[in-house]
Amino acid sequence: MIKITDLSKKYGDKTIFEKISFSLDNRRIYALVGINGIGKSTLLNAVTQPFSMDGGKVEIDGIDNQCFAAKFHFFYVPDSKEMFLNLTGDEYLKFITWIYRQDGGKAEEKIKWLSSAFKLERSLNEYIANYSLGMKQKVYLIAAFLSGAGNLILDEPFNGLDPESVAVLKKLLMEYRDAGNLVLFSIHNLDLVVNFCDNVVFIDKQRQVFQAQNPRNFEQLEAVFFQRCNHADDESV
Amino acid sequence: MIIKRTLYKTILKNKSNPIITLSLLMIEIYMGYLVWYVLNLYLPKPISNYRLLVSIWVIWICAFVAVYKIPDQLFTNRQIKDILCFPVSGRKLVLLVVGRLACSQFGITISAFWSYFLYDCTDWALTVIVILFSLVSSWVVDLLVLIASTTIGNMLSVFCVGYGFIIFQYGAFLLLTLSAGGLASRILFWPGFLAQMNTIFAPNWWLLIAMLAALLSACCSYFCVRDGYIRSYLNTQNFQGRKTNKRIAPTKIKNPYLLLEWKRVLRNKELIFFSNIKNILTVLVLCNLLLQNLGWKGLPEKYALELFLLVSCCGVNTISSTAYSSDPNRAYVSFLPISTHRLFLWKTLQGFAWGEITVLLFWLGVTLVRAIPMTNACMLLLYGTAMNYGCSWLGVFLDYKMPRTPTSTNELLHGNISKVIVLFASIALTIWEIYFTRQIARFISLLSFAVCVSVCAVMVEFGYWLLCRRAFHD
Q1: Rounded to a whole number, what is the distance in Å from the CA of B81 to chain A's nearest CA?
Q2: How large is the greatest C-alpha to C-alpha distance in chain B, in angstroms?
Q3: A94 — contact with chain B (CB < 8 Å)?
């Protein structure tokens, strides 16, 4: 569960978010949508990195995100694919299981199973620096499932994935939700939003955040998006 | 003009700040003033004798900058690959980079000589000739470095071209450092050496020779760049882009912090190879200069020189002074449950372990050469080890507290400010120890006192880490 209260964020004189509040519940998959540069990644960064907020409060599973303990309750995959390039895939996944204090034996099994599902098992002993964009995305996503965190926060997780991996990821995320967890991810593809998630979190042109149940109808969702989110009045971030 | 500036910014990712440029310019001008002030005040007259010396210094600095910048900006720079997709010729890029370099060398030369005219205006024409000689000579050096780099890129195979550049750059740095050290010691300690040099130096002829050399090297570099620059650049890039597809054996390390730190250092060849070799060379040159000019017995206290040697080994630890700035993963630590407090300790230990190799090497060398008794040798080792931890801790701490941006590209200052502060602080501490045992407490031996102080410093640092968790943002 993620609860955001009066979150504010500025870049210099420019206000990105002014006291926005909303909460996200467990057992749901949330898609975060908005036009380019409206602040989707900024919002995700503010949730996961308290020092990047200018004001407000974020609670993750009831723990203030300023507390170190809150870090064990979420796993964040940022849009940057330059993380831990100096480790091999295997080292990175083991590193994640250690710092998230997961059981070593079970984690080993899980790594084998997940890497085989994403067709990455043969590349795990190579440096992440040598991976393609899609392979990097896969290894970071495997790490998310390994962490055991109750809240997955993913910035454009479908980028760079082949159709087979997209299907695998969707299945895994749904299983994760059904196990009582929360998934929040940013995305531009409304097709995928309609077919897959439970709720949609919009950032509108006034940079206000509002939620809606997934209408499961592309035209309806597109209409809401174009009506409320398109054509930001001010410059992009 | 705008296109050139944009191109320059793109290939060097250079975000020029007018305040920093102005500050650097002011420092350069002040340094130039300071040089002539010192020469005029403290060294034998006439001041015109020192024009040749300053000219050599200028050429030396310009050569150092050229050896550092030309291979880095024109051959190992990955941004150029993106630019080459556009209709921009290689010659234009070379001209742009070398032109900018020549401009900065012009600035260095003028800054070095301007204040000479405050002291002596009698033969200004000859001074202008000396200035022109310095300037033309530094441009010749630029062109020679360009030709050498293009040749390395073309002649060596894709499997070893990168090592060729490393050997070329560091070989040149070593040569420059040794020649500058040798020249400085000769001028300072051999009376009449400068006068002898001045008699050989006939500015008009030397300028003519320099101009001819410039003309010849300009022609050579034109053909070299026209026919070989792009091939040389791509060959160098292929070395950098060569993937090691071999499978890496699974790690045996079970501690996540140790794994992170071990891989940070091990995967950064620049840090291990360049920095450690550079550090060992710095200490060797320092030691050589002390030996030549001060002598083992020249220092007031027993073991003072050994302490200086060990403390300089500890002070130049780049692995600790760049612990955060050279960490490519530092931005991602914030959203993972990684304790910054524990990470600091592992960074310190990593820096300490690598630094200890240098300390042990020099300790062994000093102990064997000087035949130091066992007890004192052990104390020296204890001192070196304690100071090594102390300097590593301080280096990591300073690098942690230094303001930095994730996109900082200033490699020249990369960790060097922390290193200079650590070196300065550790040498200052040693000087204070010598002063204390010589002037205040004469009954204490320098070595025992230094060991006690270094152990105390380690305890204070460790205590600070243990008790002031807030300072490490956990």
Answers
A1: 18
A2: 76
A3: yes
Residue by residue, DSSP assigns B282-325 as HHHHHHHHHHHHT-TT-SSSTTHHHHHHHHHHHHT-HHHHTTTT
Which two structure tokens, joined as six digits, stand for A215?
């209408």
CA angle B336, B338, B341 (to 5 degrees): 145
Q: A126 with B247: CB under 8 angstroms?
A: yes
The topology under which CATH files domain A2-229 is: Rossmann fold (3.40.50)
pLDDT at B414: 53
How many CB atoms sit inside 10 A of residue A179's CB?
10
Cβ atoms of residues B68 and B74 within 8 Å:
no
Strands of A2-11's sheet, edge to edge? A14-24, A2-11, A55-60, A63-64
ipTM: 0.88
pLDDT tens by residue, B140-181: 999 999 999 999 999 988 888 888 888 888 788 878 877 877
From residue A204, give the alpha-carbon distance in Å to each of A35, A194, B3, B388, B456. 8, 18, 38, 56, 60
| pTM listed for this prediction | 0.75
Beta strands in B24-173 (DSSP E): none
Q: Which of residues 166-205 of A touch B (CB under 8 A)?
A: none
Answer whether the bond into residue B300 is a cis peptide, omega within 30°: no
Gap from A207 CA to chain B (nearest CA, Å) = 24
Is the backbone of residue B215 left (phi > 0), alpha (psi -120 to 50) or beta?
A: alpha
CA separation, residue B221 to residues B147, B151, B213, B233, B416 (Å): 6, 10, 12, 15, 33
Give dist(CA B19, CA B259) in Å, integer.
41
